[in-house]
C-alpha cells in the first residue's frame, strides 16, 4: 500500500481527528439520539400540509381540471394547477421540459397535476380525490427500441434524447486480427434509489414576497435557479437551506417538493410542509435507467483484446432529467477498464412514457460495467482463461489511451486491485445438509436439504470518471472564519456542498483541524447565501469541498501569520500556526493566537476549480473530457439452490483505490454501502413496469437488501495519491457500485453454467434442475 | 378521541386523535417526538421501531388509540439521563451512521435484541435486525456496532 506523504502545508501533525483519522461525524450525536432534523421533520407553527395529485395514466391529454369541489372542503386553503405557476411552467436539470404541474399532456404515471394545501394531510388527500381531471387517455409509448427511430409521435425528439458515438481505431480492420469473437446481449431492469428518508420539505413565505425552502437535495444552487424561474422570482427572493437528507444516491438531484411547496406557501401566506409517502416517493424521483447492451469482443488466442463494439440503449422515460449525460458516461466506460485499440460505441438515450430516469450512483457506468464485465467472462470461457487472468492481461494502466482519446493519467493501479482479489483465500465451502439452515439460500425458508446448492465465484472490474466531465466549469466555494473563544481559536466552515450521509461534513471539520490546528470546528448550516458548491454527485464532493476548505484555511492562516508578524516584528515566512500558538521555525511558541486576534475574527472564502476538461466531439466522441478516474473490483462468492432458484451471496470481497482515505471508517462505509446496492441490483431490486405503470411501488414489493442478505465484505483500500487533488484523495462513492453487480452475475453463471443475460436475476432464471417427473412418495 | 399514554416516562393525555391515526403520526405530530421515522408506513423498514409495554413494534402499524393506558419508549427515551445509551454510543463509534434515517429505529431494535440476548452471534444479529432496512451502510458497521455495544455492556466473554 502506498501511503500519502503528509503535505508540507500541514502545520500540526499531532492534530486530533484531522485528515486521515476515522473521526466521528459532527452530526453523529443528534443522529443517534433522534434529535437530528430531516426534511420530513421540519416544522413551523401554523404550518399547512401540501399534498400532490398525480396522474393515474402513463399518457393522457389533460382536457380540463375542475377544482371547485376540492376548494370547498373545510380546512382546504388552496388548490393549485398549472394556471397558478407564475414563472416558467417547466423545469429540469439540463432542459426545462418537465411541467411543474401538467398543462397539456401527462407523460408518465404519477406526473403531478395539482397541489393542495390544507390544515391536515388527510384533509388535503381527500381534497385531491375531489379534483376532477378530464383526461383523454392515449396509448403510451413504452418500447425504447421504437423510440430509437426518432419518429414516435408524442415523445420529445420523436423519442431519441441523444445518440453518443465513440470511434477509436478501426474495428472493421481489427476483426481480421481477432482469433476469437464473442457476442452477447445483456439487459438490466430499472433500479430505484430507495433512499429511506422520503422527499420532503418546508416552505416559509417571507414578508418581502420571497420564500425560504428547507429541503433535502443534492445541489442547493441548481435547485434555487429552477425554483426561482418557476416562481417568477429573482434569485435573491428564493433562499434554500439544506435540511437533513435521509439518503439520495442521485434520486434527489431532480426537484421534488420544491416548487410545489413554495407555490402553496406563497399563495396561502403560511408555511407549508410536504412529505411524500413511500408509494408517492416511487413516483416522485428518477430511477436508474433500464438498459439493453449489445456487445461484441474480439481477442487474440492469447487473450489480448483487439476490438470492442458496444451498442447501449438507456431508456430515460418521459422527461430528460440527466439522460443525455448519463448515456455519455455510460458510453465513456462501455469498453471497461481495458486497454483496447479499436472501439466502436453507440449509445442511445430514449424518451418513452415510462417513469423518468436520471442520476443514480454510477450514472450510466453501472449499466455499461455490467455489460462489459459479463462479456469479459464469456470471452474468458471461450479462450479457456481464468477470468482474472484475462482481465489482468488487458487491464488499463497509466498512459493507455481511452476510447475517447484521452490518455489515462493519475494512478491506475488495476493490476494491484486485481492481484489482491487473486491472492485472497476463498472462504470455506459449507456442508449445507449439516450447517445452520440460516446459511442456505433462502435461509430457514429453504425447503430442501441443500442437495441442490452449487457454489460459484465471479469477478468484475470497474472504472469511472470522478467529477463533472465534458467541459463543465465546476466550482466549489467555502468560507472559513477563525475567532477566539475562551482563549482558544475556533474555526467555522461554511460550504454549501450537500451532506447526504456520505460524510462531507466530517471531512470539513477534519480538514479545518488539520490545516489550522484548531480543536474546535463549527459547521454552518448549508444554504444558498454562499456561492455554489456544485452537486453532491459524480463522487466529486469530497474532492471539491476539500479543495475549497483547504484554500480558505490557507488564506485565513496567511492573514493570522501576517498579523502575528506585525505584532512580533518578524517576517511572516518564519512563522507557523499551531493551533492556539504561533511558532518560530524551531517550533517554539512565540505568541498565542488569542493575543494576535483579540476580539477580531479572520474570515476568507475560496473558490476551488479542478482542471479544465473539454466536451467530446459529436462524430467520433474524442476529447479530454475527464478530471480523474477511479477503479474498483469485486470477487463474489455465491451459493445457488438450483432446485429453488434461490441465491445466498456468501462473500463480497473488494479492492479500490481511493487516493487518500480521508476518513477510513467513512471510506469503508461508502464501499460497503455501494457494494450492497450493487448486490440488490444483481439479485432482487427491480421496478416492475408494465405498460408504463409501476406495479411494485412499496418496500413490500420492491425489495432492497436486508442485513440478512448481506455477506461479509473483506476489502483492501489502496492509497495511491492522485497528483491533482487535495491530499491526493480520489472519489469513493460510485466505483463500488459498478463492479458489484456483474461480479455476482458472473458468480451465478459460474455456479449454474447459465448465460443469465438479465439483471436482476429472478428465481426462475436460476433453476437448472426441475423436479423429476413421477418422483415422489411411492 | 382522547388517548392517555406514557411516553418515555411522561404521561400524555391527548384529545382529538383520529381513529385511523398511527402511533407513528401520534408520536411525531402530537407528542412532538420526531426521532421515530416515517420511511415506508407499512411495517417493512423498521425506521419507526418503538417499544410498547416493552414489546418492539413498528409504530406505523399500531393505531394510536391502541396505546391507551400503555407505556411507549422511543429512541429519545433510551438515554437514562446520564449521557447516551451504550447502543447509541456504539453506533457512533463504529461508524454505523451515514444518512442516519434508519438509525433511531435500528438502535431501538438493537437495544431490544441485546436486552434479550446480551451476546448474539453474527447470524443472530442479522436475523434479528433483518426487519430494519438501511440503504447507506451495507450493514457491516451496524453489525460491528451491535457487537461493540454487547462488549461494552460486559456481556461478552
Helices and strands in order:
The complex is a heterodimer of chains A (778) and B (157).
Chain A: H1 28-33, E1 48-54, E2 60-66, H2 68-71, E3 76-80, E4 90-91, E5 98-99, E6 105-106, E7 112-118, H3 121-129, E8 132-137, H4 144-147, E9 160-168, H5 171-174, E10 180-188, E11 200-205, E12 211-215, H6 220-231, E13 238-242, H7 258-268, E14 272-275, H8 278-284, E15 291-299, E16 305-315, H9 323-332, E17 342-350, H10 365-383, H11 387-394, H12 414-423, E18 453-466, E19 475-485, E20 488-495, H13 504-516, E21 520-523, H14 541-568, E22 576-578, E23 581-583, E24 589-592, H15 593-597, E25 602-609, E26 628-641, E27 646-657, H16 664-683, E28 689-690, E29 693-694, E30 715-718, H17 735-752, E31 758-759, H18 763-766
Parallel strand pairs in A: 1-14, 10-31, 12-13, 16-17, 20-21, 27-30
Antiparallel strand pairs in A: 1-7, 2-6, 2-8, 3-7, 4-5, 9-17, 10-15, 11-12, 11-14, 15-16, 18-26, 19-20, 19-25, 22-23, 23-24, 26-27, 28-29
Chain B: E1 3-7, E2 10-14, H1 23-30, E3 49-52, E4 55-58, E5 71-73, H2 86-93, H3 103-116, H4 122-128, H5 140-152
Parallel strand pairs in B: 1-5
Antiparallel strand pairs in B: 1-2, 3-4, 3-5
Helix pairs in contact in B: 2-5
Describe this entry's structure for a reader.
The complex is a heterodimer of chains A (778) and B (157). Chain A is of the alpha+beta class. Chain A folds into 2 domains: 28-36 and 475-609, Aldehyde Oxidoreductase, domain 4; 37-421 and 631-778, Aldehyde Oxidoreductase, domain 4, CATH 3.30.365.10. Chain A contains 18 helices and 31 strands. A 7-stranded mixed sheet of chain A has the order 3-7-1-14-11-12-13, sandwiched between helices. Chain A starts with 27 loop residues before the first helix and ends in a 12-residue tail after the last helix. Mean pLDDT of chain A is 95; it is low at 1-13. Chain B folds into 2 domains: 3-76, Ubiquitin-like (UB roll), CATH 3.10.20; 86-152, [2Fe-2S]-binding domain (DNA polymerase, domain 1, Orthogonal Bundle), CATH 1.10.150.120. Helix content of chain B is 32%, strand content 13%. Chain B contains 5 helices and 5 strands; from the N terminus they run E-E-H-E-E-E-H-H-H-H. The mean pLDDT of chain B is 95. Chain B has 157 residues and is of the alpha+beta class. Chain B has helices spanning 23-30, 86-93, 103-116, 122-128, 140-152; strands at residues 3-7, 10-14, 49-52, 55-58, 71-73. In chain B, strands 2-1-5-3-4 form a 5-stranded mixed sheet, covered by helices on one side. At the A-B interface, helix 1 and helix 16 of A face helix 2, helix 3, helix 4 and helix 5 of B.
Amino acid at each position: 500500500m502506498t501511503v500519502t506523504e503528509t503535505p508540507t502545508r500541514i502545520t500540526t501533525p499531532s492534530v486530533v481527528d484531522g485528515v486521515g483519522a476515522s473521526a466521528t461525524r459532527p452530526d453523529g450525536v443528534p443522529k443517534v439520539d433522534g434529535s437530528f432534523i430531516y426534511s420530513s421533520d421540519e416544522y413551523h407553527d401554523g404550518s399547512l400540509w401540501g399534498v400532490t395529485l398525480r396522474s393515474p395514466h402513463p399518457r393522457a391529454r389533460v382536457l380540463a381540471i375542475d377544482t371547485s369541489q376540492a376548494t370547498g372542503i373545510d380546512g382546504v386553503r388552496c388548490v393549485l394547477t398549472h394556471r397558478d405557476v407564475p414563472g416558467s411552467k417547466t423545469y429540469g436539470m439540463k432542459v426545462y421540459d418537465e411541467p411543474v404541474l401538467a398543462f397539456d399532456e401527462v407523460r408518465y404515471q404519477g406526473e403531478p397535476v395539482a397541489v393542495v394545501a390544507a390544515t391536515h394531510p388527510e384533509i388535503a388527500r381527500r381534497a385531491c380525490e375531489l379534483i376532477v381531471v378530464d383526461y383523454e387517455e392515449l396509448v403510451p409509448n413504452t418500447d425504447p427500441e421504437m423510440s430509437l427511430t426518432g419518429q414516435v409521435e408524442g415523445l420529445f425528439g420523436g423519442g431519441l434524447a441523444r445518440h453518443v458515438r465513440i470511434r477509436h481505431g478501426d474495428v472493421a480492420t481489427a476483426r481480421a486480427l481477432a482469433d476469437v469473437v464473442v457476442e452477447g446481449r445483456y439487459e438490466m431492469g430499472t433500479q430505484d434509489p430507495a433512499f429511506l428518508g422520503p422527499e420532503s420539505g418546508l416552505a416559509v413565505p417571507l414578508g418581502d414576497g420571497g420564500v425560504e425552502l428547507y429541503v433535502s437535495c443534492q445541489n442547493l444552487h441548481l435547485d434555487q435557479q429552477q425554483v426561482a424561474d418557476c416562481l417568477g422570482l429573482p434569485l435573491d427572493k428564493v433562499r434554500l437551506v439544506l435540511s437533513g437528507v435521509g439518503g439520495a444516491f442521485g434520486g434527489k438531484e431532480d426537484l421534488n417538493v420544491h416548487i410545489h411547496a413554495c407555490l402553496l406557501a406563497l399563495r396561502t401566506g403560511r408555511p407549508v410542509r410536504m412529505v411524500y409517502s413511500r408509494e408517492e416517493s416511487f413516483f416522485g424521483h428518477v430511477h436508474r435507467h433500464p438498459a439493453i447492451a449489445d456487445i461484441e469482443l474480439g481477442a487474440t488466442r492469447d487473450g489480448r483484446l483487439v476490438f470492442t463494439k458496444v451498442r447501449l440503449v438507456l431508456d430515460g422515460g418521459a422527461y430528460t432529467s440527466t439522460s443525455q449525460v448519463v448515456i455519455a458516461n455510460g458510453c465513456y466506460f462501455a469498453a471497461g477498464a481495458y486497454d483496447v485499440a479499436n472501439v466502436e460505441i453507440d449509445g442511445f438515450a430514449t424518451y418513452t412514457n415510462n417513469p423518468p430516469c436520471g442520476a443514480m450512483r454510477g450514472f450510466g457506468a453501472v449499466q455499461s460495467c455490467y455489460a462489459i464485465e459479463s462479456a469479459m467472462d464469456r470471452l474468458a470461457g471461450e479462450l479457456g482463461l481464468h477470468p482474472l487472468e484475462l482481465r489482468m492481461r488487458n487491464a488499463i494502466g497509466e498512459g493507455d489511451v481511452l476510447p475517447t482519446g484521452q490518455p489515462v493519467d493519475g494512478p491506475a493501479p488495476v493490476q494491484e486491485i486485481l492481484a489482491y482479489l487473486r491472492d485472497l483465500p476463498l472462504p470455506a465451502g459449507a456442508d449445507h445438509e449439516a450447517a445452520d439452515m440460516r446459511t442456505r439460500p433462502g435461509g430457514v425458508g429453504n425447503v430442501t436439504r441443500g442437495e441442490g446448492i452449487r457454489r460459484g465465484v465471479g469477478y468484475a472490474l470497474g472504472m469511472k470518471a470522478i467529477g463533472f466531465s465534458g467541459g463543465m466549469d465546476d466550482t466549489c466555494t467555502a468560507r472559513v472564519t477563525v475567532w477566539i473563544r475562551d482563549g482558544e481559536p475556533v474555526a467555522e466552515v461554511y460550504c454549501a456542498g450537500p451532506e447526504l450521509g456520505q460524510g462531507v461534513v466530517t471531512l470539513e471539520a477534519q480538514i479545518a483541524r488539520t490545516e489550522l490546528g484548531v480543536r474546535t470546528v463549527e459547521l454552518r448550516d448549508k444554504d444558498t447565501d454562499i456561492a455554489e458548491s456544485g452537486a453532491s454527485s459524480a463522487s466529486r464532493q469530497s474532492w471539491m469541498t476539500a479543495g475549497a476548505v483547504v484554500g480558505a484555511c490557507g488564506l485565513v492562516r496567511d492573514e493570522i501569520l501576517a498579523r502575528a508578524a506585525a505584532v512580533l516584528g518578524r517576517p511572516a515566512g518564519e512563522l507557523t500556526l499551531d493551533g492556539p500558538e504561533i511558532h518560530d521555525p524551531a517550533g517554539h511558541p512565540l505568541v498565542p493566537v488569542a493575543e494576535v486576534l483579540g476580539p477580531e475574527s479572520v474570515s476568507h472564502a475560496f473558490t476551488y476549480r479542478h482542471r479544465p476538461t473539454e466536451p467530446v466531439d459529436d462524430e467520433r466522441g474524442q476529447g479530454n473530457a475527464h478530471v480523474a478516474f477511479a477503479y474498483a473490483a469485486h470477487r463474489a462468492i455465491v451459493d445457488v439452490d438450483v432446485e429453488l432458484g434461490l441465491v445466498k451471496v456468501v462473500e463480497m470481497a473488494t479492492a479500490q483505490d481511493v487516493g487518500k482515505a480521508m476518513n477510513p471508517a467513512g471510506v469503508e462505509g461508502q464501499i460497503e454501502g455501494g457494494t450492497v446496492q450493487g448486490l440488490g441490483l444483481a439479485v432482487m431490486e427491480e421496478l416492475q413496469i408494465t405498460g408504463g405503470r409501476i406495479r411494485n411501488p412499496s418496500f413490500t414489493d420492491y425489495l432492497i437488501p436486508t442485513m440478512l442478505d448481506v455477506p461479509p465484505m473483506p476489502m483492501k483500500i489502496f492509497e495511491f495519491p492522485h497528483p491533482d487533488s487535495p491530499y491526493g484523495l480520489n472519489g469513493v462513492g460510485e466505483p463500488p457500485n459498478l463492479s458489484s453487480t456483474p461480479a455476482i452475475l458472473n458468480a451465478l453463471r459460474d455456479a449454474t453454467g447459465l448465460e443469465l443475460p438479465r439483471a436482476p436475476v429472478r428465481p426462475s432464471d436460476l433453476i437448472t434442475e426441475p423436479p423429476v417427473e413421477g418422483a415422489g412418495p411411492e | 378521541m382522547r388517548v392517555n399514554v406514557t411516553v418515555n416516562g411522561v404521561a400524555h393525555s391527548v384529545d382529538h386523535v383520529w381513529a385511523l391515526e398511527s402511533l407513528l403520526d401520534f408520536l411525531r405530530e402530537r407528542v412532538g417526538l420526531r426521532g421515530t421515522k416515517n420511511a415506508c408506513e407499512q411495517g417493512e423498514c423498521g425506521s419507526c421501531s418503538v417499544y410498547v409495554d416493552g414489546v418492539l413494534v413498528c409504530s406505523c402499524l399500531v393505531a394510536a388509540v391502541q396505546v391507551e393506558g400503555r407505556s411507549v419508549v422511543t429512541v429519545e427515551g433510551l438515554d437514562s439521563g446520564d449521557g447516551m445509551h451504550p447502543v447509541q454510543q456504539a453506533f457512533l463509534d463504529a461508524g454505523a451512521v451515514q444518512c442516519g434515517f434508519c438509525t433511531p429505529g435500528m438502535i431501538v431494535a438493537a437495544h431490544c435484541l441485546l436486552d434479550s440476548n446480551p451476546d448474539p452471534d453474527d447470524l443472530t444479529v442479522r436475523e434479528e435486525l433483518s426487519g430494519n432496512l438501511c440503504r447507506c451502510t451495507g450493514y457491516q458497521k451496524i453489525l460491528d456496532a451491535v457487537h461493540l455495544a454487547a462488549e461494552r455492556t460486559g456481556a461478552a466473554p
